UniProtKB/TrEMBL annotation:
Signal peptide extent: none
Stretches assigned to the FAS1 domain: 37-183, 190-318
SUPFAM superfamilies per record: FAS1 domain
Record-given protein name: Transforming growth factor-beta-induced protein ig-h3
Source superkingdom: Eukaryota
GO cellular component: extracellular space
Organism the protein comes from: Triatoma infestans
Classification via InterPro entries: Adhesion/Biosynth-related (IPR050904), FAS1_dom_sf (IPR036378), FAS1_domain (IPR000782)
Amino acid sequence: STPFASNHATSYIVGGDHFTTPAIPPLSSQTSSSAASATLTEKLRANGLFAMAKFLRQSGLDTVLNETGPYTLFVPTDKAFRALLVQLGGPDRAELKFKENPRLLSGLLLHHVIPGAFKAASLQDEMTGVSLAGTQLRVNTYTTQDQEWNDVKVVTINGARILGEKSDIMIPYGVAHTIDRVMFPLPVGDVLQTLMSDRENRFSKFIRLLQDTGVAQSLQGTKSYTVFAPTDSAFTDGELERLLIEPSVARALALKHITPGTLYSAGMLYYQLRDSMSSPNQIQLSKEAGRVKVNNAHVISRNIPATNGVIHAIDSLL
């Protein structure tokens, strides 16, 4: 049996946040008999979500999710899965990785499932929960503008945008929401741990700046932060050592790269100012043709998830 199988109201306590959601009623009480008889993969395919249906079937998780609940499934579009396969070295190499290590595929898919059936309207800013893969998922809501300058509410899960026109899809024992990208990579820890675990070790100088100024300790708590992290190449030769000679200046610089709250790129406007942790300094964000700038720095790697926020890598100091 799975720990989330229940036909009663179920509460989940994660990191101090407490969420309660009613269980999805048994299939026999759902309104449509055809919907009740449809399997999970059939429902996904009927909504044009062929890739998720394929991988759930390939992993065997479709059988589990057909029989237990309640749960919420976040389903990347087929286009999003194609982008992931390219990121993994192409479809052939990705398929080989999945076959050699089935847990890689099942872990990735379970990262997109959370206990409890949450309708889109119930998702609130900074709501967090633990997925069936044991990883953290964080909801954020933003107000952006469409092409006609109308205010539009954007809801994200670990930075992936929930597509309103394909949300609240009723599935066996749960509800599904379509998202615009695969939630990958999976969060590995808090902001500091995530910086330290970067596979290319791009942030060693910034990490030293954070540690030597005492800022690192602040990034290990439960408050959420957005960190614009300069890569090592953003520092000129000897620049870090010169900065650390004056601790107050170095600390102010480190704090200037951090802003309170969780800001994924989906919530960024074409122009906005945000307070940094180095009061009264603000940072200027601009977004054009999908490219993001912070002051004069370019974001070169965006939306790196952490359990207490998000990291965007930048190519120069602020």
